Amino acid sequence: MNAPLPSSGAPGASFSVLGLAPVVPVVVVEDAADAVPLARALVAGGLPAIEVTLRTPAAPDAIRAIAAEVPGAVVGAGTLLTPDQVTDAVAAGARFLVSPGCTDTLLAAMRAADVPFLPGVSTASEAMTLLERGVREMKFFPARAAGGTAYLKSLAGPLPQVRFCPTGGIGPDTAPEYLALPNVGCVGGSWMLPEDAVAARDWDRVERLAREAAALR
């Protein structure tokens, strides 16, 4: 049986994605057959929260397979843009939801799904709008292009109650700088899934890189 997951500040959420591991792998699955061994390697390396992006036709089947076959994995769906995608992702087994930005319609759909979610923001006004709606955990995207650690440091003063998962342009060299900030719970990235390793199905390498990422905090 999986251990209880950390609780979340998001309304209706049963756990916090930000509390599972220092890094959330952002996964683009081209072949659904790779989903289970890839996820097993990530979990073995200490990264249980796995964001499968809805950027490929294989993504729903990948989420379904990971949810059914990888004990210890907390699989989520990313790059959510529409309410229909939210519904389909949860039906496939997604246990958390991530979007690059947020609209009122998308927020309503994610809240109705009754699983933890990280809506994307890149400005103080967007964060304040979500805070007014009771959301305190958000994705900061695109992190590097939107101002990186300097911008997040600036947000910590006026918005101390908001915590972020920065994603976008983050690698193993810069991740520790983000993780050192008080308003950062985890970071998202894909550096532990290099294209050549995935193409070669070198899951041992993926596990090793995941282990290194898990040790960043």
UniProtKB/TrEMBL annotation:
It comes from Streptomyces albogriseolus. This is 2-dehydro-3-deoxyphosphogluconate aldolase/(4S)-4-hydroxy-2-oxoglutarate aldolase. Its EC number is 4.1.2.14, 4.1.3.42. Keywords: Lyase.
